[in-house]
Amino acid sequence: MGASAELVDSDFELPPRSPGQLFRARFREDKIAMASLVFIGLLVLMAIFAPLVVSIVGGPDPDARDTGALDPLFATPTGPSADHLFGVDQLGRDVFSRVVYGARVSLTVAFAATFFATVFGVIAGLLAGYFRGWVDSLISRSVDVLLAIPYLLLATGLASACTLAQTKGGGSGCLGGLVKPGLGVVIFVISFTSWTYMARIVRGQILSMREKEFIEASRSMGSTDARIVFSELLPNLTAPIIVYSSILIPQVILYEAALSFLGVGVTDKPSWGQMISDATPNFSTAWWYMLFPGIALVLTVLAFNFVGDAMQDALNPRKRRS
Predict the structure, then answer these.
(1) What's the total number of domains in the chain?
(2) Which CATH number belongs to the domain containing residue 272 in this structure?
(3) Which of 14, 61, 114, 233 is the most core-located residue (most Cβ within 10 A)?
């Protein structure tokens, strides 16, 4: 009994911790996630300082063509060497430089498209869940229609249409010139086809919270709908929004790679998906051209997935670790 009483007393003597402190403590317990977070940080730094990284290893510009690096007899790509760490492609371009610069494209699209999809999805979910009625019907039916269409097929069609509009319209692009081929089209297409799941998640959360006591108390005090939505409901959605956003990022990276692989994504800058597409016909003789961008893509997606899963566990108050 004495030992039990001491144990209880010691438990009560523990200083209270804020939700942020609890989140950090739980997240640090996942060593794989911590290692993945370090990898993502290094990847972001590599993308930001891509010219410096390439110059340190003595690599050329990613679009520079070195015909002297090709096989002298058949003008075919050559493998890794002291001058070209990851070899060269069929045009004599340095694969290492293109992989490093390709990280810029993947991360730019991932963060930008995830941000826009999250913002639009949260707004749509808030409106549908709180106001219900015809607003909910309109938004929910729009979500159902978009989910019924294969997202990759829809994205390919939208990207192709914007590229065609750019070609025939003298550079006008889509939406009156607001969206133009390249990064802009890819970010727009991925955002347009990725907000639906966020909207459904937020709508479900709002429907379960809008009738709770603290919302009724806020209404009784004369709070406006805008105040209730942004001051009462939205702060309680922080955890699911963060979790789903972190899970959406690796999906967006694969999404961009798929579009670039199909030739309707980023074509004016080095892209991992585009590199894999270009390497496909030559894989049997130039394996390095597909291997290195493929490894970069796999490791990046895995790192973001590990971090997303760890954040989901850390933000879940019912999570119990053995």
Answers:
(1) 1
(2) 1.10.3720.10
(3) 114
